[in-house]
Amino acid sequence: MTPIILVDGMLGKLSKWLRILGIKTLYAGTLTDNEIERELEKHSQTVLLTRDRELYRHAISMGYSALFVPEAPIEDQLSFVLKRLDIEPVLDMSRTLCPLCGSKLVRVSREEVVKEVPRGVLDRYEEFYKCMNCGQVYWRGTHFYEIEKTIEKVRLIMYGKVEC
Ligand SMILES: [Zn+2]
């Protein structure tokens, strides 16, 4: 089972990438340390990712799973976390979660997003996804290839090779 991962306020970018990879992630940007501890208590599968050494030490001493994430480029942070949690980075749009809020995305037709997406985008792309919670619309555009490239880099760091 994919763990629920709690990311503290210093790791917002990391939480977005974990969600893109379909990993259930709670971004604790607005939670206090006490609230974070309560979340860890609630879900036994939860792993805390933090850049706060004190919070990390405290979580470990309480018996929770936690990783102290090094300050590094996002590719290195991602491979660090995925390796330790034994998760293979695979981009699969049917599993991708909304980078903004972490909810499920559903494939929608062009007609369904006609009011939300600029005309030029509507004409150029065919695959649209919508977040069921916050309503954000995504499409397979140029940004998508940047995402693929980053994930390839992560695979390279993790396995020393890129699978085609
Ligand atoms: Zn959303």
From TrEMBL:
Which InterPro entries is this protein grouped with? Answer: Mut7-C_RNAse_dom
Name all Mut7-C RNAse domain ranges.
Answer: 5-150
Q: Which domain of life is it from?
A: Archaea
This one is known as Mut7-C RNAse domain-containing protein
Native organism is Thermofilum adornatum
